[in-house]
Specification:
alpha/beta, 6 helices, 36% helix, 5-stranded mixed beta sheet, 176 residues, globular
């Protein structure tokens, strides 16, 4: 029996988290892990109680879709919270903020400068990412000696196909 290694397993969790994103321009998921236990998840989108981005909640994202704003421009006007920030805030919200010290964060994109600052400040020591982000905080993460690992997307493919294959088992279970 084969099982995914820890980095692959938790990156698959981040991929699932990004399915909840309500941003119209980019879907990102993040997971914070301590001692091989998932302690928080996050995805990008407008704050709780604010109209979802895909419903017009973020004027900057709508302007980007219309071609009025380019990628990377006017980021300070975006109402969407990044997945990494949401995961960190989830720890604070549910009272496990201290558990981020020495933790690993998995994210489908490398974190922006702001999220990099947050990760460093809460004691995250390792970050595993799938893809680059145009204005990422790589230099800052390196300066803070935070280990940054870029996972090859290809390692997820066999596990994703296995999940799809297992839906046949789910269909069989539903029949009984």
């Amino acid at each position: 029996m084969q099982r995914p290694d820890w980095d692959t397993y938790f990156m698959l969790q981040a991929e699932i988290a990004r399915l909840r994103s309500n941003c119209v321009t980019r879907h990102t998921g993040s997971v914070i892990v301590k001692e091989n236990r998932q302690i928080a998840t996050g995805y990008n989108g407008t704050p709780s109680g604010i109209k979802n981005c895909f419903e017009g909640g973020c004027p900057r994202c709508i302007a980007r879709i219309k071609g009025e704003t380019k990628a990377g421009e006017n980021l300070d006007r975006c109402l969407c919270t990044h997945a990494e920030a949401n995961a960190i805030m989830q720890c604070a919200l549910f009272g496990n903020a201290g558990s981020t010290r020495g933790a690993t964060m998995y994210s489908t994109f490398s974190p922006c400068i702001e999220c990099s600052k947050m990760a460093i400040s809460v004691g995250i020591i390792r970050m595993v990412v799938l893809a680059d982000y145009p204005e990422d905080g790589t230099r800052l993460l390196n300066e803070a000696n935070l280990e940054l690992v870029k996972l090859d997307y290809g390692v997820l493919k066999p596990w994703k196909s296995l999940i799809i294959k297992d839906t046949n088992l789910s269909s069989e279970l539903e029949k009984s």
